[in-house]
Amino acid sequence: MTRPWTEEYDELLKKEWYKGTIIPKIAVICKRTEIAISARVHLLRLGRRVTQGGRKNIQGSAGFAGLKKRNCLMCSIKFQTEWKQQWVCNPCRGTSLWRSSDNRV
To answer: Same domain, yes or no, for 50 and 16?
Structure first.
């Protein structure tokens, strides 16, 4: 039987994810399976992150100097970019309007 995700576990998952913790370790911390962690990361649209041995984590890294907060071109809400040319926030990128549009940014 599966346990529902609580806001507390979602916040814990986000914190560990952006800290660069590997999925097996997050699974132990959150008391979930690795598959459950991967599925939740996808569902929450946490985006790419960097693990040990790769680029540094986005937050507080000089290697990501081009990343900044921008206003989404679809909803106008300010969001933190994940790559230099990102102009549409992740929630808007998940909408059917974005997926079906021929005029993508």
So the answer is: yes
